[in-house]
Design a protein that fits this description.
Distance between the termini: 12 Å
Low-confidence stretches: none
Strand content: 15-25%
Mean pLDDT: 96
Number of helices: 11
Number of strands: 11
CATH architecture of one domain: 2-Layer Sandwich
Strand order of the largest sheet: 8-7-6-5-9-10-11
Helix content: 25-40%
Order of helices and strands: EHEEHEEHHHHHEHEEHEHEHE
Amino acid sequence: MHLIIQGSDVATADLKHLARLCGASGIGQVSPNVFRLVDASPAAGIAELCAQARLDHAFVPADRRLADIRLLVMDMDSTLITIETIDELADMNGVKREVATITAQAMRGEIEYDESLRRRLALLKGLDQSALKRVYDERLQLSPGAERLLAQAKSHGIKTLLVSGGFTCVTDRLKTRLSLDSTYANTLEIADGRLTGKIVGRTVNAEAKRDELMRMRDAMGIGREQIVGVGDGANDLKFLAECGVSVAYRAKPIVREQTTHAINHVGLDGVMNLFN
């Protein structure tokens, strides 16, 4: 195994201390603030030191290669982008606090997702459809490293799939902007220029996200070990379980506990540093 260390600032003293703790045979520099500790073994104190120094760490197989990956699957809200789209729509309808509370409970797995979405959408009823474009234009920001991650994936011939419990009014625009291969999200119902508080068709919940991943996997003829998944909430766990490498990005504890790696400090491009 190798131990990957990355952060906004990796102090030499911390790096040497980590090398001693894990018994590494050498230290290789991948980029200015990314290091590979060679032939490393898990040991007490590593997680604590990294947390204190605000460093991300990951034990990865020495033979894991980016060239073997064929599909990158990502969540959208609070993963590919920094906002929760439904919370920002709620702000434009004067109910952000109420909706954000339900969103947080759902992300932690405290409320069943379909019920949480039904309750949140009901609070958006009557919102003018112009708010959909305003949220994208005025409030949406990509997560740090998002464009670099996707550019690297494209350069290695890796297909990209965005699966979201958010809305097509955002995913469609992101698909064009970021040259994503496929997107899958909820479609808001609109009547007379206003949101009805409902969606059209199947609810994109945890099961739907997983099913869309498996559909694309089967169409590509690839295996689980060729898929990388990135998400942050309980609604992502089912699709992440179908990925050979699963990454919790600035995620809730329930997600960090059930994924192969966690990134809490660096940007999304840090995902690519988990591979040779």
